Structures are given as C-alpha cells and as structure tokens.
Amino acid sequence: MNIDEARVSRRNLLRGAIAGAVLLPFGASLASCAAPGGGGGTGDEQPQGDVTADNPFGVAANSTIDAVIFDGGYGTDYVEKAAEVLQGSHDGVTATIAASTKIAQELQPRFVGGTPPDLIDNSGANSIGWNTILDQLETLDDVLEANNLEGEKIADTLYGGVKAPGTFGGEFKALNYVMTTYGLWYSKSLFDSNGWDVPTSWQDLADLGAQAKEQGKYLFLWGKEAATYYQTFVVDSAIIQGGDEVRLALENLEEGCWSHPVIQDILTTFHELIQSGYVKPGGSGTQFTQAQASWSNGQEALLYPSGSWIENEMKDQTADGFEMAGIAELPFDGNQTTPQGTMRAEAGEPFVVPSNAENPAGGKELLRTMLSKEAATYFAQEKLSPPIVKGVVPADGFGSSALVSQTEMLEAAGQNVFTVKFINLYGMNSDQLPIWNSFLDGKMSVEEITKQLQDLTDRVREDDSIEKIPAT
Predict the structure, then answer these.
(1) Domains along the sequence of the chain with CATH
(2) What pLDDT sits at residue 425?
(3) How far is 12 from 10, CA to CA, in rounded Å?
(4) Is the pLDDT of residue 35 over 60?
(5) Residue 114: CA atoms inside 13 Å, Cβ hemisphere, count?
(6) Which of 9, 23, 45 is closest to 358 using CA atoms?
(7) Cα gap 165→87, rounded to integer Å
C-alpha cells in the first residue's frame, strides 16, 4: 500500500461507522480488562512489540488497549474514532473505550490495586487530584517527538504552550488535547434584537441585569454540578484585573489569598447582583445541563460563564437562530494591570498514561493516533472546539459562530494568556461546589464565602501529606 492509499484507508476508517472500538459502561471494562491475578503490568510483564516508524512505542500485536474517557461536553466518540483507525493499522490490536463521569471514584481503586487503564482522560468535576497520581504516570515527551500518521513530527504540528498545563515539577505528565477558551457566552441574535451592549467589565453587569429583568429574564443562572463555573469566572476576572500577583497567591495557596482586594471587589459586586435578583434562583437544586438548557434553549438568562465546550455540550438543546458567541472573561473595571485582551486559554482535557498499566505503549499509540490531522479535524468539526493540532479549523468555523468567537478571542489575546492549576492540582473542586451553590443561592455573605474558601485552601497548604508543587 502506497502513502496515498494508506491515507485514504485511514480516512475511510476514521469516517466510517464504529466497528471494532468497543464502548462499554465503566463497570463492564473492569472485569474484561483487569490483569490476571489482579496485578498491573510492569517491565517484562507488559506486552512488547517491534519498534518501527509506524509503531514508535512498540505496541504488541494482538494486545488490548484499555482506555477510560470522561464522558462530558466532548463525549467519547472522538477517541473511539481514533481507536478504530489504530486497530486498522496494528495487527490484532483491540481498543476498549469505557465512558465515565466519575473518574476519581472509579479509577482511584484501580490505581491502588495496580490495574489502572492504559489511557485516561482525567477530566470533569470528579477528576483525580494530580498530587495523588503524578508519580504513577509516564512522561509523554516521546509522544510529541514521534511522527503523526501523516509523517510529521507531532511537536511541530501543535499550538505553542500546550505542554504547560500538563507539566508538573518540570515533568510532562499530561497531554491536554483541546484548546479551551474560558469566556462569557451569549446569544448574539438576542443581544442584537434588544439593542444590548456586550459587557466590557464587571461595572457593566448591573445595568445589563436591570435590562434583562425588564424583559423577564436573568443575567445569570447555574446548575448544582457546575456552580464552580462562577468561581472560575471570579478567579479569572481577578487575574485579568490584577495579574500574576493574584494568580500566584492562589496557585501557591498563600495565607489570605482569597482576601486579595481585587477578589473582594469582584465578590462584593457579584453579591450585589445576586441580592438584586439578577441571578436565577434555585440552581442548587437543578441539574447543570438542565440549567444550561434554560439559557441556550429557553433563553431565560443573558450570559453563561463556561469553557468552550459549551456549544457542543448543548448542541441538541440550543434554540434555532441562537447564534452563540463568546467574549473573554471580564476585568473588574477599566484599570486592569494586564494587556487588553488577556484571557485564560489553555490546553484542556488531560490525557495520561499510567506507568503500571498493562499496555502503556498502547495508551501512547492511541494518543499519537488522536494527534493525526484527520482525527484532529474530526474533533474540531464534530465538537466545534479547536484541538491542540494547528490548521484544522477553517475560517468559517464549520459554520459555528462560537468557534469563530474562540478564534477571535485567541487572536486578540496573542501571547497574553494564562492558566490556573491549583484547583485541579489539589482536587479542591468537590469541596468548593457546596460553597458556591450556597453563595449563588444568596445564603452566604462575601465574608462567609471568603472564609470558607480560605479555610479549604489553608487545610490543603497545611496538610504535609499533600505534595505541593510551586507555581511560577
């Protein structure tokens, strides 16, 4: 088979129906993929194949690849597609793709028992805290040094800075697959029809909330599992306003970090918006996608803070003609210390390969396949979000106004982008959810939310059993 024929074959595999990649409920994968005798694969016990240009990690013929993928806004089909391509080019290799929404609860016992999967998408509100598994993960530099399926060095095909979110203590342990932009999302058609101006700072939100109320709408709404989306909004806005001084205090778990004046200014303004009735009540008792549908389909609220996965997550529950668009998160006022356009944008959806897995070579090969141009283009078109592979999103964003917005935000920001790691690094999100649900419900003052967030931060900082990774 020549190169062109191989590309056609891969394209047909990628676009064809899923045949060999098996999608299992999580429990079904445990019995079928557990190692004999309950032991994980190490050293000579791991299957070994010949290392070649087409098999850079030495995946053994007739081996099995066990992947557990977070079933969130991006679903799991893009990994299933890559698995199908891999199976078509490796003799007898089978990939099982298990979907999970509770990564930590379901996979921590497998790490403890020595039987982790070969590839994990450690994402979602219930992801595993990085500090608990970093020493059990492969470094992934060799994946970026390998050639993709088209014969190009993978590192040369990716956006800049994609290693940063997955680098801990100087070691590259997690490959984040999606270029995630964090912003405020809205319906352009709704704003245009009402003559509303898109806000440029937190100072604009009270007036916009009043205008929404006149139309029987709210400024914001939320769902219980996603209450911390508003923490992200507050923290990112504070960093945009105050720069690294704010970011590093939070990232390094400093005493009094939540009492920084910029954070307090934003929390105070937010509390006033809640008390003014501009935030739809009852979110703490509403499932988050139901709440999001009230925004995207019911158009009950004007703005929703989220990462760029939101369009794909709600594509079946978005009103016709909605014209979803996004802007970068807001500075507090016109005196921000960072350059205009500064935003949080980072490679997200972190994939890891446990060293003690049965087939880590297979996990890396599945990642390599996902980083091909064809697989990355499939992801961009189907998920309406850009992967870390460059040059796969056309100018029209495949007809997606939200994807066009992401491109515009990234172009406006240039190199002025930042990431925030401390929440996921120390597995804090689950403990922060009830705090933010109470605050959004109007049941907590600024002083109370500050104390509870700081108490949680202090507990993590003072727990000597938790390894701390300094931020710079």
Answers:
(1) 3-178+347-396 (3.40.190.10), 180-346+402-462 (3.40.190.10)
(2) 87
(3) 5
(4) no
(5) 9
(6) 45
(7) 30
Tell me the helices (H) and strands (E) count for the chain, helix number first: 18, 11
Mode of pairing for the β-strands spanning 22-25 and 94-100? parallel
> How many whole angstroms separate alpha carbon 311 and alpha carbon 402?
7
Closest by alpha carbon to 271, among 229, 220, 226, 337? 220
Backbone φ and ψ for 36, nearest 5 degrees, come out as -55, 135
* Of 56 and 472, more confident: 56
**269 pLDDT above the threshold of 90:** yes
290-330: per-residue pLDDT in tens?
Answer: 999 999 999 999 999 999 989 989 999 999 999 999 999 99
Calculated CA dihedral for residues 368, 393, 124, 162, nearest 10 degrees: 60
How far is the C-alpha of 271 from the C-alpha of 277, rounded, in Å? 10
Q: Residue 346, SS3?
A: strand
CA distances, 208 to each of 190, 196, 252, 323 (Å): 13, 8, 35, 19
Tokens describing residue 196 = 């509303």
Segment holding 241, helix H or strand E: helix 229-242
Q: Residue 292, Cβ neighbours under 10 Å: how many?
A: 26
**CA distance linking residue 66 with residue 44, whole number of Å:** 18
Q: What are phi and psi of 280, to 5 degrees?
A: -60, 125
Of the candidates 109, 59, 108, which has an alpha carbon nearest to the alpha carbon of residue 83? 59
Dig out the tokens for 178 from the structure: 């999606």
Question: What is d(CA 29, CA 209) in angstroms, rounded to the nearest whole number?
Answer: 48
